[in-house]
Amino acid sequence: MSMPMYVAPEQLMKDRADFARKGIARGRSVAVSRYADGIVFVAENRSTLHKISEVYDRIGFAAVGRYNEFEQLRVLGIRQADLRGYSYDRADVTGIGLANMYAQLLGSIFSSGGDKPYEVELAVAEVGDSPGADVIYRLSYDGSVTDEPTFAIMGGSAESVSKAIIPDWRPDLPLATAVKLLVKGLTPPADPAADTPAPVLAPEALEAAVLDRTRASHRKFRRLTAPVLAELLGSSS
C-alpha cells in the first residue's frame, strides 16, 4: 500500500494562493470608486459577458477572474438578497451581509483540501443616503475582506492602476471626472520600445455602471451605455 506524499500545510496554502493569483492576474482590471453622488464601476470589457451587475436595490457587484465562477457567485448573491428581502424587509439586505456570505464561501473553498480555490476577486458596494454611508468591500480568493475607504482595483495590473489614480482621486469628484480618472488608470501604458501611439480605451471597449443615490427609484443601479460614456469622457470636468 503506497503512502500519500506529505505536503506541509504552509506549502499547500502557498501553492493554492499562487494558483488563484495567477488566474486572477490574467483578467483585465476592474475599478470601483466613490464619487460625489454614489459609487461608480468601470472595467475594460469588450464582450457581452458582464463583469459588473446589480445585486439588489442599493447594492452592486463587480468581479474579475474565471467567468463561470464569479457568475455563480453573482447569481447566489442575488438569490440570497431576494430571499432575505422577501422574508424580512428590503432594508435588511445589506452590503456587509452579502460580503460576509461571500467571505465564508470563498474561505471554505480555499481551505478545503479537495476543490481547487476559486480564481476570482470580488467587490460588493452599497450606496447610502449620504456619502458617509457608502461602502465598498473587496473580497479575495481566500475569503479575506477589505473595507475600502476610497476605491478598489481588482485583477490585471491592479497596482499600476492604483498608482495612476491616487494622485487625482477625491471623494467629491463629479461623475464625469471620476469616470475619466478610472479610465485613465485602466488604460495600458504606451510601450516606449514600440513606435506606436499610446493606446486609448474607447467607450465601446468599456463596461460601466453607477449606484446613484440621487435616483428617485428605490433601485439605484444604472448602466452607463457607450453613448453616455462618450458624453462623460468628452465633457469637461
Automatic annotation (TrEMBL):
Chief localisation class:
cytoplasm
Q: What pathway is it annotated to?
A: Protein degradation; proteasomal Pup-dependent pathway
Q: Where in the cell is it found?
A: Cytoplasm
Quote the record's activity regulation: The formation of the proteasomal ATPase ARC-20S proteasome complex, likely via the docking of the C-termini of ARC into the intersubunit pockets in the alpha-rings, may trigger opening of the gate for substrate entry. Interconversion between the open-gate and close-gate conformations leads to a dynamic regulation of the 20S proteasome proteolysis activity.
Q: What is a single cellular component term in the Gene Ontology annotation?
A: proteasome core complex, alpha-subunit complex
Q: Can the keyword Transmembrane helix be found in this entry's annotation?
A: no
User: What keywords were assigned to this record?
Assistant: Cytoplasm, Proteasome
Q: Which HAMAP family match?
A: Proteasome_A_B (MF_00289_B)
Protein name per the record:
Proteasome subunit alpha
Q: Which gene encodes it?
A: prcA
